[in-house]
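User: Hey, quick favor. My workstation is busy. Could you predict this chain's structure for me?
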Amino acid sequence: MNKRAYVFLLLGTGLAGCGSEDSPNKPPANPPVERPPVETPPEEPSNCEPTWDGPHSLLEGEPLSATIRCATGLALPADTSVEGLPTGATFDPESGSLSWTPTLDQAAVYELVFKLPTQNETLTERVAVTDNWEAPDNVPVVDFLKYPEEHGLPVLNLEVDVGQLSAAAYVPATVTYGGHAYATQAQYRGKSYPKKSFNVQFGAEDKFSDPGREIAGIRSVALISSFDDNSYIRSRLVFELWRRLDEEHVFVRSYNAVLYLNGVYQGLYLLAEEVDGGLVGRFGLREDGNLYRAIDQNANFSALDRFAVPKPSLSLGYEKLAGEPGAFDDLEEFVSFVSTSTPEAFGAGFAELARQRDYENWWLLVMFTLAGDSDEKNTLHYHDPQGGLWRVFCADSNWSFGQNGKTLRELPTEPRISTHNLLFKRLLDEPAVNLRQRLKDELRKSFDLATVLALVDEYEAEIKDAAMRDEKKWGAEYTTHFTAPPPAGRVDFLDHEGEAAYLRSWIEGRWNYLDERF
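Assistant: No problem, here it is.
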């Protein structure tokens, strides 16, 4: 083997040393190549998840324009359809647009069911069409089974022969409410305002119910017009504050509703339990016990009437709602005890006759709300003649929170405790009771300012649209009715929004005044 061949042999076997790791002649290794991650294309959505962008309420005569879209970005399937489409309405499945102008006879709540067979999906939307009572050619609502609500509030239609209605007796009537028609009886209630209030009695086999408000089996309801309160809040707030004062109180449940009379819009009302044996029975009291309503300022727990003249009967100022008709013996004994007992006898014996906390709370409520017609009248007194303590609870009170019974303004700094009520004076004079300290305590409990103002805000948000609609119907008559010749006449009328603001301001002023005073 020659020398040249030997070198080639070394190179071929790698023994020449030039291929070793330390060799400066070795070419560098190629760095690893970073490849971009492979992006997985997003999956196309398989569902539409339909949504509705249109209004849920409108007035008869107003145009409705709404569109159904897929929240996932898909095009609306061409086979989309809608069930429950009202007469006159059109739906275009290609664009998903729905158009409709309800006519003046189409007030109702409509349930529209959009069906998307391709995606096996549905969308249900409710559209509430409000009766346009202001339109000259408006048609009264006929079928209230299909018109259960208005501006989010329940609707009650009272069908009755208005020519037969009076405050003296009940006449046959029909009530439609919550998808149900009741055979009832009705009468006028309270003051003879242009906007009437009503009492309605229901049949023993078909009592009033509203499961959504946990109400069932009510025998009678009051439909309170609130004509003398254009905040529409005062009575409801009084009821609620009374309830909050004591878990063991007998109290009246109430909420706002819209009333129609024979198919014609009547306005925003307060629907409240009417006081009867059934109401007290709900609190475990005997339904046939004695239930008395204080009807005027002579219900003052005194032997003297409101003019300081001796009463012909100590039951003067009361009417009997339940119990043995015409029997007032226990009430007269109660009034006699309050009006004639010595301070020592009163202090020792009142708590044996009555649930004292009820009667203390009555004073607290009157003081905080300045309820000028609830310190004697507009209260209910219950007693079981077979044994038990006297109880008291409150009726509606529009004379409160800065206005009197004629809507004249009252300052939040009014110091009045009571104009006549002897029972209040006796409780205030009783050292062991210390009512003034209780009022101070309740300002940070049941009458906590932030809590009370929050209630006002809650009620106002709930009723505002309905209140503004009511004001269109009754606002001018409200002003006319409560305008009186100087010097007592009102000139400071407010619209609903202004009255709600006044109510808030008055409550704040009253709270601060009582907090400083007590």
